[in-house]
DNA-binding GntR family transcriptional regulator
Amino acid sequence: MNESRPVAVRREDGMAKNSEVRKRPPRVAKPTLAAVVTSELREAIISGRIPPGSQMNEVELAARFSTSRGPVREGMQRLVQEGLLVSSPHRGIFVPVLSAADVEDLYFARSALERGAMLRIVERGISAATIASLDQVLGEMELAMAEGDTAAVAAADLHFHEVLVSAAGSPRLMQMYQALVGQMRLGLNLVIETYVERAELVSEHKAIVRQLKTGDRKALLAAIDEHFDVALDDLAADGAGHHHHVNHSGVTNRA
């Protein structure tokens, strides 16, 4: 009888230790240096702090981030894959300068993705949570328009469409869409100062929500097509006097 007691004690101790292990909060993986570099460079490019045509200097960036050139090189390659940087053999890596044809192609790809997302939403029915999220973003957009905050208007616009694509419930579609968002923001940067002048911007988005609620596929697709057509017309009109191109040194010129 006495010999069995130590075994029981050891068993209880073991159970207590296992219980302590189970209660420990899960470890949160820290972002790698490459991930930090990628994130900060992405935001700097999308926001326009690193303007189109800029050449990326690996040595200077490594010094800026207090790291070796490896994480910087990895970060830049990730952004090349996202389309936020372009690699030119024997010349270097640059922030792309979007032409009118580039922007039109981006809207074409974006329209194809969003039309597919909206048709799936109509088939499955739009949730109350999605409607609430869209209404909240519309409120933010209206407030930003009233305050003349161009950056906030652009951010709300992109957020609205991101909510829609996410509501389709397709991880792969969302992944493809997110790869386009950064490039779309580069396009918006070309006309961001005139963005708040689009008085119809909020009403266009409200029309999309209205048709999503009714489930009218034809009217919904017409609403999204009109929204993108107006955006392209505005980009074309604004770009008429500002032709962008990259010369052989990779520096942006304006004619």
Notes: The chain has two domains: 7-96, 100-239. The domain at 100-239 is CATH 1.20.120.530 (Four Helix Bundle (Hemerythrin (Met), subunit A)). The chain is about 70% helix and 5% strand. Strands lie at 86-88, 92-94, 244-246, 252-254.
